[in-house]
Amino acid sequence: MAAYTEGVPCWADALLPDVEAGKRFYGELFGWTFDEGAGPEYGRYAQAYKEGKAVAALAPKRDGRMPTVWNVYFATPDAFASARKIRDAGGRLVTEPMPVGPFGTMALAADPEGAVFGLWQGGTHEGFEKAGEPDSFCWTEVKVRDAARADAFYEDVFRFEGFDLDGVIDGFRTWSPAGAEAGPDTAVGGRELMGEGVPAELPAHFLVYFNVDDCDEAARVTRGLGGRVQSPPVDIPYGRIATLVDNQGAVFAVLQDHAD
């Protein structure tokens, strides 16, 4: 039985110009350690660990025209079937499903507005070994301009149960796995409608969140490491968040639980 239910975010990686610089940045920020990186046949993919458990990876950009970005991957029991559903729902494949040795099968896709996300069909590598805890992945959301179009796409492809947070966070819809009771308690990700104040040139995109013990400290450390704060720490009903940019330009967010 697969470790991750269909549609659950199961992995994240950053595409960077300089992986060694990325190791120094994230090693200092999150206390991550890294392996030596897979061989050239796997793109010298460097896996990150927290307390010995896999939490993410850093990959070198093969082409300077590629974006410097954090990618999120959604679990699928059949990457080829999911790819067909993506096309049928109005999306497109950026990278067709491809086996990655014994580790699994991956693909990159774009939704109808162009937001890029990954698919992962686990093999020997099923995904995160640690998530939802400090210094590990905890959430993802897609930021779009056409909410109805995005909702129809993701709820068709991954069979998500959607739940609107209007009145709590306007323009936000959470996603729960198929068969779960929709709502924040079962949510694994979500969709946010970009408002009129967002620059028109900013395309639809995913944002990857990492849990931290102290949101303000994470912002301070990011600045000290040569990164920057895109959106300063702010309280929301579910915690304290900030949007940060690493020292190579990859955007990510941090979340401090209110209980902390």
TrEMBL record:
InterPro entries, sorted: Anthracycline_SecMetBiosynth, Glyas_Bleomycin-R_OHBP_Dase, Glyas_Fos-R_dOase_dom, VOC_core
PROSITE patterns with a match to the protein in the record: VOC
Top-level taxon of origin: Bacteria
One Pfam family here: Glyoxalase
CDD domains, alphabetized: SgaA_N_like
Domain named VOC: residues: 8-122, 136-257
Protein name: VOC family protein
Lineage start: Bacteria, Bacillati, Actinomycetota, Actinomycetes, Kitasatosporales
